[in-house]
Write a structure and sequence with these properties.
Blueprint lengths: L2 E7 L3 H9 L6 E7 L5 H7 L3 E5 L4 H11 L4 E5 L3 E2 L2 H12 L6 E10 L2 E3 L11 E7 L3 E3 L8 E3 L3 E4 L4 E6 L2 H21 L6 H18 L6 H34 L15
Parallel strand pairs: 1-2, 1-4, 2-3, 6-11, 6-12
Antiparallel strand pairs: 4-8, 5-12, 6-7, 6-8, 9-10
Helix pairs in contact: 1-2, 5-7, 6-7
């Protein structure tokens, strides 16, 4: 049963080789290179990957284009900062060849901040402890979105794998905060485009709800200082994204109200 690995990259030369090295057990590797200006494409080809090169402003577009290029009956979706070890590779092969009674598997994810493993409390697109990453073709699709698009799954749930992916997104807390800044900027554009910029009071309510979900419900409190920081950033994401979205709406309104510049007419010289 053929297995395709799908990786979406954007200037990920530094970490792509480590990711692709762990995917050599797959029958094929498809790498979507979105506006890459480094050597990401060259690295991908060194590992035998088929490269889909293009401009994809939305994450949903990247994933959809990559999935359409996959030829396998099953697809393993991996981020450039993630690694598949030998135990997970064996479990994946066993799962899809064991005549599963469903169409997708959830895969656990171990998220690292530097050398620290943080298993609990993730939210707001900063990380996820479990995700549907192994699925049959035509089972998964994504709603339009620049960042962290909502996934829609059809068919039957096949179960959870036991061995986790390893994800090394941030080298330190400073990188986490910088990433939150980038994520909130993209999320603000999605909110403004959808007419869902909302109001500050609603943002505050969502922010408090996210903090409680991350820190209490998802047990971030068991992760010490990093668990508290992740919960705080999850809450701030709702507030910052909303404020930035309303700023975009106001800026667009000002631009739309500006009078169009009329081209100057070229007069004809009179005959002498």
């Amino acid at each position: 049963m053929k297995l395709s690995a799908l990786v979406c990259a954007h200037n990920d030369e530094a970490r792509l080789a480590t990711c692709l090295r762990g995917l050599e057990f797959c029958d094929e590797i498809v790498v979507v290179a979105d506006r890459c200006t480094d050597r990401s494409q060259d690295v991908a080809r060194q590992y035998g990957a088929r490269v889909i090169d293009g401009i994809f402003p939305m994450e949903s577009q990247r994933k959809t284009a990559g999935l359409a290029a996959c030829l396998g009956e099953w697809v393993l979706e991996v981020e450039p900062d993630e690694q598949v070890d030998a135990n997970l590779a064996y479990e994946i092969r066993a799962a899809i060849h064991g005549r599963p009674g469903g169409d997708w598997f959830d895969v656990p994810v171990d998220n690292f901040v530097g050398a620290a493993l943080v298993r609990r409390g993730w939210g707001a697109g900063l990380g996820e402890a479990m995700a549907a990453r192994l699925y049959r073709q035509r089972v998964k699709r994504w709603k339009a979105g620049r960042i962290d698009p909502t996934a829609v799954l059809e068919g039957r749930f096949a179960g959870e794998l036991e061995t986790p992916l390893s994800r090394h997104t941030d080298a330190d807390v400073g990188q986490m905060i910088a990433r939150l800044n980038r994520l909130s900027a993209l999320r603000a554009q999605d909110l403004a485009d959808a007419g869902e910029a909302g109001a500050l009071l609603g943002d505050m309510a969502r922010g408090l709800g996210r903090f409680w979900t991350s820190y209490v419900w998802r047990q971030g409190l068991r992760e010490g200082e990093l668990g508290f920081l992740i919960a705080l950033m999850s809450g701030l994401d709702a507030i910052v994204s909303g404020i930035r979205a309303r700023g975009l709406v106001r800026a667009r309104a000002v631009t739309a109200a500006e009078p169009a510049i009329q081209p100057a007419r070229l007069g004809l010289a009179g005959r002498r």
